[in-house]
Write a structure and sequence with these properties.
The protein is mostly helical. Helix content is about 70%, strand content about 5%. The chain contains 50 helices and 7 strands.
């Protein structure tokens, strides 16, 4: 045994080699190189040293150094199968497939069962389109394991790779379990530092969208090797599945800090850029990856997607895709970067199914559904053994509403891979959807739960058709096919939102209640929602997405389609948006056009998500107000022509983007200035800051009042009265001190004393928000309605962004019997609070009482847009339609009311009355007789029946 001396000590060479290996496994790459160099002179360890050092050089991004090292080592030991196989592996990673194949074959001459050589050879066959040989190569690993029963960690993981690849191609799903539950644990048992075991099992789980189990596996791997670049990239891919672009990029950057030329990390970072729409930056990253391996299918697929997104689709696209085995015969435009790339690839590999699948996925992520479908189909044709394009095509068909086709192909995909979470979830969605009822109109197809939402579906269909012409005219585009809406309710122990989420992304949670793919719309049923929402508003919003996405061939940026959809809803800015504007605009906490999309996919908080919608809408408003309404269709046309925002801005608005952005910021400043001083948010202070300020300035009335208010909130009332009283002694109009004292008096139910404090401190020219609110509410409780009205009106004038003042005004006007003012307040509230049915219902009731039947119908229907199951509103509509002499509509509303409230005699009578007015005497008579059977003394029915006789 060779012995190596280190700093005066002597260690067996094998021990030092093991030390180097452990350094390598734990991510201490420089230390590993140092350890290998210490024993490099010993002949017996030369192969292991060369292989170990080459791995360290590779992971540090020094692949050329690894090549030089291996060339020298193979020259010295040309009969070492392990050296030859390792050199073949490196050449394969460089895309030098011919050399890799020759080296692997040389290794197999000396050891016909060398696992790494076998793996390289199978992978080369895959990359060069020799699929039968590749399949046989992967199957070899299954047979090898059964015969040899290897126990070395590296060999077990190669067996896992081969077995899984064979399983993917042959639909042998039991091999997935075998790899995850047997081979990976056995590898870890053989080598406790084998982080690759966790990575292999985690990667298999992640490919099936089982993030919950995959991520812990990756974290276990990082616990062993915090610098394991493949693991960092896999974690980035996991968060990218949830559209967390920022975190995905951070993982890619961490991997690139270790290995600046790590191809998977460059690919991941390019995926982030493609998702963000910065295609030129993606191309720069892909160029770096191609410098390492110019023939990598996965890099080339991303590059091809970028070419198509920038240059458009060449005329020879279909012919090339369909004739990869004869591309030389296809005429190619000289200027087409995509076509040149594809021809070069096809010459090496005419069965590039992985390339086609990944290209389809990248284009689908940019909503290029038609192109993606053609690519998936051809991938399946060229490589029918692949599960990936089948799965992708099935999910694509779900996105574009081809559910019958989706059912067939997802069933095939499930048979090939029953552990794929998204496939499994989508098959469950399809099974549920197949039991839904279909409501078809001229322009829409609506599918609903026949028991829970049939009524809702009818009213949705009516609403959509009524708004169709107006929206089509507004945007100058009509979808060529009927738009499908799917409304999901609770079923099989899952909530409506879980079913809706699974329908859209194959996973049980997304943030919104409704979503559009640009072809279909799905939403969670409002009848199953925890909080009511205006479903008509959601339908209009989502249908605008359908129009603008299809109108621009899906090239419209996310922020602009959202801006147009929100604007089309027809409601003013919500109060929460105004509050955010007041806070963020002065701080400059804004997103530019380049940053807006990120606010939708990666908001910092729910409020940040809200503000992204707010900013998007205001960008559209700024365009119209500053440059004219014609700019909206012009910008849509620019996006349809595949222009980027950078090019579209000067083309449409005649200014560069910097000038446009500067004008937008000034526009926001003007909006905030219009709010007035009364709406400016108070600077928030932490409890510690409030206490410190008081301790340093105990005689300052404001500091004392803030501290007293803090103590009262904490329940420390003993000191509060003394501090607040002292503040009022210093300044009898200190508003917050007056509020504190009033609250203390109210605890003793001394309303008169509370009012005295508040009235004394009220400054009508510059009222304090909390003081005014408390004073107005006490006046209302004290039944001093004129004074309360005056205070609520002052509050509404001073703080117009706060709808609570409007609510108070409405309550006071109702008490005062000032019907006109009451109605006016309700009308404003119906716009400011679009998801509250009670305001609309009250307006409908008032209109009906005044025999303003048209207004009663208007507000009654607006109420149904939030609560379609309210029997009283349907009755009200029945009465209003009767008043308008629209008897068929009246009959329908009374019938619906009776469905919701069966047995109600008044509803039965209303129905009979409308049936009679509509000329249906037979039904009216039957209804009246039915009433009298239940209640013989029901006089209105008696009188009407006698009139029939």
């Amino acid at each position: 045994m060779a012995v190596v001396g280190i700093a005066g000590a002597a260690f067996p060479e094998s021990d030092l080699l093991e030390t180097a290996r452990v350094h390598l496994q734990k991510g201490r790459y420089e230390e590993a190189l140092e350890a290998y160099e210490r024993v490099e002179a010993t002949k017996s360890g030369s192969s292991r040293i060369a292989i170990g050092k080459s791995r360290a050089f590779e992971v540090l991004g020094r692949l050329s150094t690894a090549v030089e090292l291996l060339e020298q080592a193979v020259g010295k030991n040309p009969r070492s199968p392990s050296l030859l196989a390792r050199f073949a592996e490196v050449r394969f990673q460089q895309g030098r497939y011919n050399e890799a194949e020759k080296l692997a074959q040389r290794a197999l001459k000396f050891d016909g069962r060398h696992p790494l050589a076998r793996m390289v050879l199978a992978d080369v066959h895959t990359e060069t389109g020799r699929l039968k040989q590749a399949e046989a190569g992967y199957r070899w690993f299954v047979r090898f394991y059964n015969q040899a029963q290897p126990n070395e960690a590296e060999t077990l993981l190669l067996v896992a790779r081969g077995a899984v690849q064979y399983a993917r191609w042959k639909g042998a799903s039991q091999h997935f379990n075998f790899a995850v539950n047997t081979l990976c644990p056995d590898a870890l048992q053989s080598d406790k530092y084998c982080w690759q075991s966790y990575h292999v099992s985690g990667s298999l789980l992640l490919k099936k969208y089982n993030r919950a189990q995959a991520i812990p596996e990756f974290k276990q791997a990082l616990a062993i090797n915090p610098q394991a670049t493949p693991v960092l990239v896999s974690l980035g891919q996991a968060v990218l599945q949830q559209h967390n672009l920022g975190e995905a990029e951070r993982y890619a950057d961490r991997a690139l800090q270790v290995n600046p030329s790590f191809v998977p990390a460059l690919q991941l970072k390019a995926d982030v850029r493609i998702a963000q729409g910065t295609i030129s930056e993606a191309l720069n990253l892909l160029a770096q990856a191609l410098a390492v391996n110019p023939h990598d299918q996965r890099t080339l697929a991303r590059q091809a997607a970028c070419f198509l997104l920038i240059d458009g689709v060449p005329s020879e696209f279909d012919e090339l895709i369909l004739n990869l085995d004869a591309v030389e015969d296809v005429p190619v435009a000289k200027s087409s970067r995509f076509s040149k790339l594809l021809v070069a690839l096809a010459r090496r590999n005419p069965r590039a199914g992985y390339f086609l699948t990944l290209l389809g996925e990248r284009l689908e992520s940019r909503r290029q559904y038609d192109l993606a479908e053609r690519l998936y189909k051809q991938a399946i044709s060229l490589m029918p053994q692949l599960a990936e394009p089948k799965t992708a095509l099935g999910m694509l068909y779900m996105r574009i509403g081809k559910t019958d086709e989706a059912q067939k192909i997802l069933d095939r995909a499930f048979q090939a891979d029953p552990f794929h979470v998204r496939v499994s979830n989508l098959r469950k969605v399809l099974k549920l959807l197949n039991g839904y009822e279909t409501i078809a109109t001229e322009h829409f197809v609506i599918r609903v739960d026949s028991k829970l939402d049939k009524l809702l579906g009818r009213y949705m269909a009516e609403f959509l058709e009524e708004n169709y012409d107006q929206l089509v005219e507004r945007f100058g585009f009509e979808p060529p096919h009927r738009t499908h809406f799917e409304i999901y309710n609770k079923a099989q122990g899952l909530s409506a939102h879980q079913w809706f989420s699974s329908r859209m992304v194959g996973m049980p949670w997304i943030q919104t209640i409704g979503a559009s793919t640009g072809v279909i719309v799905a939403l969670a049923s409002p009848t199953a929602a925890a909080e009511p929402f205006n479903w008509a508003r959601v339908l209009k919003h989502e249908f605008v997405h359908i129009i603008t996405l299809q109108q621009t061939n899906f090239n419209i940026p996310h922020w602009f389609t959202e801006a147009l959809a929100v604007s089309a809803e027809g409601y003013p800015r919500p109060a929460v948006w105004d509050r955010l504007l007041l806070k963020r605009v002065p701080q400059g906490d804004l997103r530019s056009l380049d940053e807006l999309n990120d606010g939708f996919v990666r908001p910092r908080s729910p409020l940040d998500w809200q503000f992204t919608y707010c900013q998007s809408r205001l960008y559209a408003q700024y365009m119209v107000e500053q440059y004219g309404p014609q700019t909206i269709p012009k910008l849509l046309a620019a996006y349809r022509d595949n222009q980027s925002t950078d090019k579209a801005i000067p083309h449409v608005f005649g200014v560069d983007k910097q000038t446009f952005e500067k004008g937008y910021r000034e526009f926001l400043d003007r909006i905030v200035a219009e709010f007035g001083d009364g709406q400016k948010p108070q600077t928030s202070k932490s409890p510690a800051e409030i206490e410190k300020n008081y301790r340093n300035n105990p005689d300052d009335p404001q500091a004392a009042a803030e501290y007293a208010d803090l103590l009262l909130g904490l329940g420390k009332r003993r000191q509060v009265r003394k501090i607040a009283s002292k503040a009022l002694q210093k300044n009898k109009q200190e508003p917050l001190a007056a509020v504190v004292m009033a609250r203390l008096e109210l605890r003793s139910e001394d309303v008169k004393a509370a009012l005295a404090y508040l009235e004394e401190a009220l400054d009508r020219d510059k009222p304090h928000h909390r003081l005014l609110r408390l004073l107005a509410s006490l006046k209302l409780l004290d039944e001093k309605y004129p004074e309360a009205a005056d205070l609520y009106e002052l509050g509404s004038k001073t703080f117009p962004h706060d709808v609570e003042w409007l609510k108070g005004m409405a309550a006071v006007y109702l008490k005062l019997g000032e019907t006109a003012k009451f109605k006016a307040a309700l009308v404003v509230l119906s716009q400011r609070i679009p998801d509250d049915p009670s305001v609309r219902k009250k307006l409908a009731e008032l209109a009906l009482s005044e025999k303003d039947y048209a207004a009663a119908v208007q507000y009654g229907r607006m109420t149904l847009h939030i609560d379609v199951l309210d029997a009283d509103v349907h009755r009200l509509l029945g009465e209003a339609y009767h008043g308008l002499k629209k008897y068929a509509h009246s009959v329908r509303e009374f019938e619906v009311a009776l469905q919701l409230k069966p047995g109600d005699l008044d509803l039965q009578f209303g129905l009979a009355r409308s049936q009679l007015a509509a000329g249906d005497k037979k039904s009216a008579r039957a209804g009246l007789e039915g009433i009298l059977k239940q209640k013989p003394d029901y006089q209105p029915a008696k009188i009407m029946l006698e009139g029939l006789d």
